[in-house]
Design a protein that fits this description.
4-stranded antiparallel beta sheet; single chain; 8-stranded antiparallel beta sheet; alpha+beta; elongated; 236 residues
Length: 236
Amino acid sequence: MISNLSIAQKVKLSDMHGTWVSAINDSYFLLFSNDTLFEIGLDNEYIIHVYNTKVGFIDRKNPVLLDHYKKEKEINGLIDADTIWMVTFDIPEDLNIEILKEQKNENDYFYYGGTLCYLGIEPEDLPSKVGSRFELINSNVFVYNKVERLPNEYLRALYKKGKKDNKDYLKSFFNMDFKEIKIPKSIIHSAPNQPTKMYLIKGDEVEFLEEQGEWYKIRFYGKKTIEGWVRKSDVE
């Protein structure tokens, strides 16, 4: 039944784009953007882990891919490329094989980070990962629910990891522009020149929303999400 359903569905990767949380482990998220799936987890010490894998469709008759099959077959004894249902290997980046965002024809292979297969593979034949579900391995289905965005603590952890890795994960993943408070105490204003009792401290990460004269409108993702205005001179 699972096989028949997967054949019947016309898979659109755009339907899978967005942020997903595991229905089994709510600390584990998947972020799907373009042709890349990012796995994001946060441990008990608030250290975030990010892994990525390519996801999409590959033309079954791609000559570069077929040549790669032949070499893999000689080395690892893979089954013939014309009859293959699934093979597990990572396609080297230097092969420059195009990964398609949408399925062009029913014979295209579905590629999920190291696993290449037809949609509709019989689950009892081989462990498989199927495009209409995030994962299908040995008939165990892993369910993910779509959410609007990552929790606040994940956003802060991604900001810190980006600084360490010299990468702007928040900009790349969510098009969010973050800055950091650089003075000991920055008063949050409800509007320019209208201070509140709230404040931020040095090192706090804030999302930049808007610029107005000498002021930035910001959003702080703490235990609660707070919006307000701070002086430009307070951030870097």
